[in-house]
Structure formats: C-alpha cells, structure tokens
Design the sequence.
C-alpha cells in the first residue's frame, strides 16, 4: 500500500471544546512535520539501555521483499520441521494466501502439541483514561472529546471484586498514558489490590524505566504488555504526534526493560491497519524471537489487534487487513513460534474468535469493557449481548478506548469455548 | 499377567506403569483417560490446581489415583521448592515431580537446579520425581540427593518425536538403581513399548493423548503397549541383529576343546 492510500485525514477529528489556539496547534502538528518533535530522540527521564534487539529486528524488516516468495517457498516452509526466519517470511507473504487452509492445519497441530486444547481467559480493567498523547487513531487521544475518568482505590477494589466474583482469575490493568494523572505509584497501588483478587496480574500502561517495572513487580505484577502499534518508523512518526509515546525507541525497548526489572513475561503487538501489515507482523514476531533468545526464561505472547472505530470517529477501520489476512498472520506466528501465547481480543467478532482458538490463539478476553468503571453495570446483564457502548448508561463511567466487537460475558464465553470442544483455563500461574 | 511386578516409588507400590498427564485436554475427559489407561498416577501442574472454585482440575482427578503434582513454571530450585510446599498445603500429598525450566521455548529441564530442589524436598519427606536430561552424572547426583526415581526426557516436550535420547536413557537404565521413568516426547504407543523393552520402569505421556482423535482409545493403546513392552523386557528378549544374518555354521565351530 502506498503512503497516499493511508488517508490519514480520516483520523483527524476536531472537538468543539478546543480553543482557537489549541485547534490551530492541533492542525499545525497534523499537517506540518516540522512542527513535531524528533520521535527518535529520548525525552528527559527516559532510560536508555543500549539494546541490540532493535537492530536485529529491523535488519530483516527493512530488507524484506515479500513479493519474491513463491508457492514453492511456502510449501517448503510448511514442510520444514523447524520454521526458519526465511520460512516465516514466506508464510507471511502474498504467495501463502492460497495455502491458508494448509497453514491452519499445521498451526493447529503446533498449537495442540504445545497447549493441548486449552484456552486461557483474562479480562482487561481500565482504571483511567486520561492521556497525554496524540495518537490519531486512539479514542483516548488527548484531543478527543470523551468523558475522562480515573478510578479511586475504593472504586478499583469494587471493580475488581465484581470481576473476580464472575470467576475470572487473571486481570490486565490498563490506563491511558498519563504519568501526571496515573502515576507509577497509583498504578502500583491498584496492582497491590489486584494481587489480592487475582492469580495473575498484568499491566498495559505507558512504558516505564527498569526501576519502575521492578517496583510494579514488587506490587504483584508479572506481565507487561506494550504495543509498538507500528514498527514502521515513518508511519509511527505520522501517527503519534504528541506526548511520550511519540518516542519510538523508548517504546521499542519497553519489554526488555520490564524483563530487566524482574517481570516474568511480556506481550507484544502491532496494531494492524496502521502500516504495511506484513512488515508489522514480521517485526512483532522477530521482536519476540530475538528477545526470547536473549532472555530465554521469559514467557512471551503476541497479540494481533486490528484497528477499530473509536468514540467520535466511526471511519477508522483496518484497511486491507481482513479476517483472512489476520488468520494468515496468526497461523504464521504459530508455525514460527509454537511456544508463544497468542491473544485474540474482543476487537474481533465472536465467530472469528471461536474459529481461531481452534487453530492458533491460546488466550481470549471475556467480560470486556474498554471503558472506565462500568464493569458492574455490564456484568449485571451477563448475557453479553446488551453491553455495547451505546447501550450503557453514559453516566456509568469513562468512555471507551475503542469499540469492542465481541461483548460476550465470562459465562457465555466459558460455555461457548467449552462447546467448541476446548478447555477454558482460568489460571495457569503462580506468583513465586 | 505379572501380578508381582510392581512399580515401587518411595515405598509406594503401583500396578500400572503408565503415568498420565492431565494438562492438555478437557477436564471432562480425565476420568475416561484414567480408566482406559489403567493409570494409577496422574500428574497435575500445581499452577493449574491453585485455582478458585470454578472447575478446579483436582476435582476431575479420580480419588483412587495418586496425584503427582509438578512444579512447572518454576525457574529455579527455590521456586520449585515453594511450589512443592504449596502442593502439599493444597492436599496434593507427598509426591512431587520437579520441573524447572529456564527456557520458555523448548521447556528443557535445568539439571543443576533440579538436583538442588531434589535434595531439599527429599529431606522434607517428599517422594521426589525429577524431570531431567539423560545425563549419567546428574542421575547419580539425583540418587544421592534422595530422588525416588529419575525421569529423563525422551525428546522435547510436546514434540511427539519418540526416543530421541534413546542411547543415553539406556545408560541410565543400565547404571542407575532407581526406577527410570521416560517422560516427555513420547508420541506413539510403539515408542512407549520400545522404552519399556529397554527396561524403563514406566512411561509418562500427555501430548500424545491430547493430540489424538479419540483420547480414551489412545489411552487404551498406550496401556497395551506399555504392558507389552514390560512383558517383553521381563521375558528376557532375544537378541536383535543389527546387520546381516547369523551364520548357521559358527565361525568357531572348528574349535575342539
């Protein structure tokens, strides 16, 4: 896809509450690259770890030519006992598209060898949606006029109790990216509460320094997820216009800092639809691949989200990444790295998630809200069908980061997964 | 057939030599798997058992079976010891299978840390079954550390590739007094049978069953294969020619006295 086809103007929404000066500044950074800061230059306070991972990953990504792979390369890759990086590139290439069913069969076998028929469950909990970044595709972006909210510790405990009472044993704590509003200590205190209610606590918050990850680990966190969104430096710069998130290399090294801080594992992802999805899929997987070589004890997982509409902008979509392309990427991930967890979130439809857990995915979210403080409201309904954003009382909490697609409750999800012949697993974890 | 042929682990006697995994298939199939496998020992990850009331794996394991909790997830001896103690607190008994991995890709055991954990837990009265690489020196250290058996991996876990480490497992069988239980990588009943023919005391399988189309039937197939291999071993198997045929007229037939 050429750069012109990205149509970035579809992302730009002006709020009626912005002052003329703020609006002028917003337009300037949207349209004039020279008005934006250097996204490759660390900001004050950001730790530099001098990692070698970025160079290893990007040497492949920058040189790959997916058009050179042929059907023969794809078949050879499917035939090999061990999937090499070259094989993986062939499986991601357009030449592999006609072999999707064969890829799915191989992926299913690899998944069953390593995970049997188990599917792990978790639920995300957004504790704040304040954000200092301007990421043009995100519902939380600082210019988007949404209802902002930050939960108090009492509210967090209440939300966690509601979720834990549903049967869930793993929670992923999320915030918008605002150090000012959601300090490391605030997140840490929330995690201490989570540690009381859940067996496994993960965070998906703004990137931190090693000592801060160490502190969160002491608060009970063992898993850190950071999405790079896109590994394409040029696109990254065009999409992340303001804030700490603009600094590409600091974000790239987040997982390594988390592992250096003592975390047990980490999650990775690109948000498919922002740039060339094949390159972003290659980069995401190689990020895991090389970091696993460097930290062999670490447990790694990959997600594969696609762009979704957000509050105030229903034009956002994943462009050329349709379900078939998404399935190809997930199968390629599984064949290349049979040991990694693969998470498929509620961004995808019920039908897709029911199908993909039988092929490649090993972890699904259930009972999802991407808003703030509205679990009780949603869980009361519990059939999963009436809990979409538009049907929830707006006074219940802060607005959502994106529209979810699969709104099934914990109980519905549990039954559906069981009915597919799979074994839901709520806990596979000990904090030791 | 062999009524007096017991598998003895830490003073406990078992008739079955098939140890069954439980972590990769539907909980509702566990009972059928146990029944068709004729298994008396079932492994279970403590991290899976340490769950709340919603479908605890422990509730699906028949009470008649001996539970063999494993320490999967442990990255060093200290973590394995803590998990083993937790298993005991959860009411899982005194058996423990030590699994210590510092590698999330291949899940290969860390022999050094395994020896350390074995020593600590054996002293605490656990019946310790350590999962390990087939290394004779390590096996001897495990004996000295108080292990009740030694569990070498046949091939990478989950690979279904069979007895890749055959020669080294044979050395353990030949040299170590404790039961040698072949663990991990066994993909087919014929491979389990071969391990038993070699003199292994028992075989453990999980993925081979989990990936089968008909799990209870595969459990039954493993049961038969393991019994066949055991009987072949006990019968004192005839020689196997590596190459060529045996000369019917011995080359040394001319010797007179």
Sequence:
């Amino acid at each position: 896809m050429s750069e012109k086809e990205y149509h970035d103007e579809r992302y730009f929404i002006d709020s009626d509450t912005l002052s003329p000066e703020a609006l002028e500044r917003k337009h300037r950074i949207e349209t004039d690259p020279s008005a934006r800061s250097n996204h490759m230059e660390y900001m004050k306070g950001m730790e530099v770890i001098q990692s070698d991972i970025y160079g290893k990953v990007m040497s492949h990504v920058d040189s790959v030519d997916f058009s050179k792979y042929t059907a023969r390369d794809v078949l050879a890759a499917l035939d090999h006992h061990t999937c090499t990086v070259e094989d993986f590139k062939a499986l991601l290439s357009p030449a592999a598209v006609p072999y999707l069913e064969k890829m799915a069969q191989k992926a299913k076998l690899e998944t069953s060898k390593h995970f049997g028929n188990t599917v792990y469950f978790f639920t995300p909990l957004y504790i704040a949606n304040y954000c200092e970044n301007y990421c043009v595709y995100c519902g939380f972006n600082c210019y988007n006029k949404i209802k902002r909210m930050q939960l108090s510790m009492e509210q967090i405990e209440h939300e966690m109790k509601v979720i834990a009472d549903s049967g869930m044993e793993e929670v992923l704590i999320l915030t918008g990216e605002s150090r000012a509003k959601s300090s490391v200590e605030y997140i840490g205190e929330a995690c201490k509460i989570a540690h009381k209610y859940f067996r496994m606590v993960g965070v998906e918050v703004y990137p931190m320094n090693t000592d801060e990850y160490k502190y969160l680990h002491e608060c009970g966190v063992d898993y850190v997820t950071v999405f790079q969104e896109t590994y394409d430096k040029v696109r990254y710069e065009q999409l992340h216009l303001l804030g700490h998130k603009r600094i590409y290399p600091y974000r790239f090294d987040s997982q390594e800092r988390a592992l250096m801080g003592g975390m047990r594992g980490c999650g990775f992802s690109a948000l498919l639809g922002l740039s060339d999805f094949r390159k972003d899929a290659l980069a995401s997987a190689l990020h895991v691949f090389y970091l696993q070589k460097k930290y062999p004890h670490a447990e790694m997982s990959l997600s594969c989200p696609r762009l979704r509409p957000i509050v105030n902008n229903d034009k956002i979509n994943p462009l050329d990444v349709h379900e078939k392309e998404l399935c190809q990427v997930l199968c390629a991930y599984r064949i290349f790295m049979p040991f990694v967890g693969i998470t498929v979130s509620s961004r995808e439809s019920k039908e897709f998630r029911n199908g993909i857990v039988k092929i490649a995915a090993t972890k699904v979210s259930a009972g999802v809200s991407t808003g703030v403080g509205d679990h009780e409201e949603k869980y009361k309904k519990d059939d999963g069908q009436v809990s979409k954003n538009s049907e929830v009382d707006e006074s219940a909490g802060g607005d959502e980061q994106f529209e979810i697609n699969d709104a099934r409750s914990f109980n519905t999800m549990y039954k559906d997964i069981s009915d597919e012949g799979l074994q839901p697993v709520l806990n596979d974890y000990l904090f030791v | 057939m062999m009524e007096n042929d017991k598998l003895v682990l830490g003073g406990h006697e078992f008739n079955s030599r098939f140890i069954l995994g439980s972590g990769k298939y539907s909980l509702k199939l566990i009972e059928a798997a146990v029944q068709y496998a004729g298994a008396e020992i079932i492994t279970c990850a403590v991290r899976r058992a340490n769950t709340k009331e919603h479908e605890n794996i422990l509730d699906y394991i028949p009470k008649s079976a001996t539970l063999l909790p494993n320490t999967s997830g442990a990255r060093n001896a200290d973590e394995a010891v803590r998990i083993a103690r937790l298993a005991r607190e959860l009411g899982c008994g005194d058996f423990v299978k030590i699994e210590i991995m510092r590698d999330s890709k291949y899940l290969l055991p860390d022999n050094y840390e395994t020896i350390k954990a074995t020593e600590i837990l054996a002293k605490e009265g656990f019946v310790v079954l350590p999962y390990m690489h087939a290394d004779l020196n390590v096996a001897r250290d495990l004996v000295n550390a108080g292990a009740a058996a030694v569990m070498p991996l046949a091939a990478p876990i989950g690979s279904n590739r069979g007895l890749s480490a055959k020669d080294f497992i044979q050395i353990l069988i030949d040299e170590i007094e404790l039961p040698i239980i072949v663990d991990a990588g066994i993909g087919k009943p014929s491979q389990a049978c071969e391990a038993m023919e070699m003199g292994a005391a028992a075989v453990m399988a999980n993925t081979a069953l989990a990936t089968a189309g008909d799990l209870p039937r595969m459990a039954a197939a493993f049961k038969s294969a393991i019994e066949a291999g055991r009987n072949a071993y006990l019968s004192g198997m005839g020689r196997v020619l590596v190459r060529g045929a045996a000369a019917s007229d011995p080359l040394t037939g001319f010797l007179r006295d």
DSSP finds 16 helices and eleven strands in chain A. The mean pLDDT of chain A is 88. Chain A touches chain B at residues 109, 112-118, 167, 169, 199, 265, 292, 296-300, 337-339, 418, 421-430, 432 (CB under 8 Å).
